[in-house]
Amino acid sequence: MTKVVPYKNDYILVERNExxxxxxxxxxxxxxxxxxxxxxxQVPFFKETTISLLNxxxxxxxxxxxxSDIVANYHFQLAETKRREDFxxxxxxxxxxxxxxxxxxxxxxxxxxxxxxxxxxxxxxxLSKTVAGRMLQPMLIKSALILTLFLALALFTDREILTxxxxxxxxxxxxxxxxxxxxYHKRIGNVFKNYQKIFGSTADGKKEQLIIxxxxxxxxxxxxxxxxxxxxIFNKVNDELxxxxxxxxxxxxxx
Length: 255
What we know:
Elements: H1 8-40, H2 47-92, H3 114-156, H4 161-167, H5 169-201, H6 204-225, H7 231-251
Helix pairs in contact: 1-2, 1-3, 2-3, 2-4, 3-5, 3-6, 3-7, 5-6
């Protein structure tokens, strides 16, 4: 069956905004390095003018980056709304979404109901925690490098307080994104562990209530974090984890 994901273009829009944000970030990093080099070099002409110009450009980029982050979160929430509607349609046989996916969920053999919703969300949490885990180390390294660079820029160059404050938007935004990713990974990991308990050791009569509670914890975490999982990592681990997920369904007697 050909895979159809009706909200795919919405996530592509989020990815394009993220690419723009990354371009702005690394342009600012390059300018900051140049500013540090020029401030310490013995440049006979236009040194102060050049540094002032670079600082002005960096301040502008910091504001654009901040606005871009807000816009990205807005588009992410719109995409998540469509994803969530499609999730409920597939799980509960509702008709919330304007268009429904095909070949996206791997549990089509199950009858619609809360149990199927739990299985779908079990699989989602498995993929999400794995992708987030693989995103963490590069994010931590990037945060450390950017924080070090911009602190050096703030401490070792002569600039106005407003300029310094504006340029510190970059490292602080990256740090809060890193903290959100860390907490997202931890909370989704807890959701996954709860599903292991639900399908591994919970009596059938109590599963549905726990599934609803756990599913809302998952969706609340996604809504709070506004984290777009890396699509390259997602595609890689999706192929890698598919056979593991099928083995896990056998383990927990999920038909």
